[in-house]
């Protein structure tokens, strides 16, 4: 009887791990899509403002 319970428990753990892997994969895909959209809009805004907008400006300081 203990072998049956162990088998069912192992089966449930495997199904849970598989579902978590699927959810993590979907989340990674969505994160990549959102990052791509943000980068695209960053490029568009940079072109429209001739590169003057945003906080990516370099300062003219020297590191001595």
Molecular structure report:
It is a single chain. The protein has one helix spanning 2-48. Helices cover 73% and strands 0% of the residues. The protein is elongated and about 75 Å long. The chain has one helix and no strands.
Write a compact overview of the structure shown.
The chain crosses the membrane at residues 29-50. This protein has 64 residues and is mostly helical. The protein has one helix and no strands.
Order of helices and strands: H
Distance between the termini: 75 Å
Strand content: under 5%
The number of distinct helices, counting runs of at least 4 residues, comes to 1
Report the C-alpha radius of gyration, rounded: 25 Å
What structural class do you assign from the helix and strand content?
mainly alpha
| Gross geometry | elongated
The count of DSSP E runs of length 2 or more, i.e. the number of strands, is 0
**Low-pLDDT windows of residues:** none
Look at the structure and give the mean pLDDT. Answer: 86
Keywords: Membrane, Transmembrane, Transmembrane helix
Transmembrane segments: 29-50
């Amino acid at each position: 009887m203990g072998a049956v319970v162990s088998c069912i428990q192992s089966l449930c753990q495997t199904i849970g791990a598989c579902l978590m892997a699927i959810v993590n994969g979907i989340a990674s895909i969505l994160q990549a899509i959102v990052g791509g959209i943000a980068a695209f809009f960053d490029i568009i805004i940079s072109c429209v403002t001739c590169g003057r907008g945003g906080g990516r400006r370099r300062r003219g300081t020297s590191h001595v």
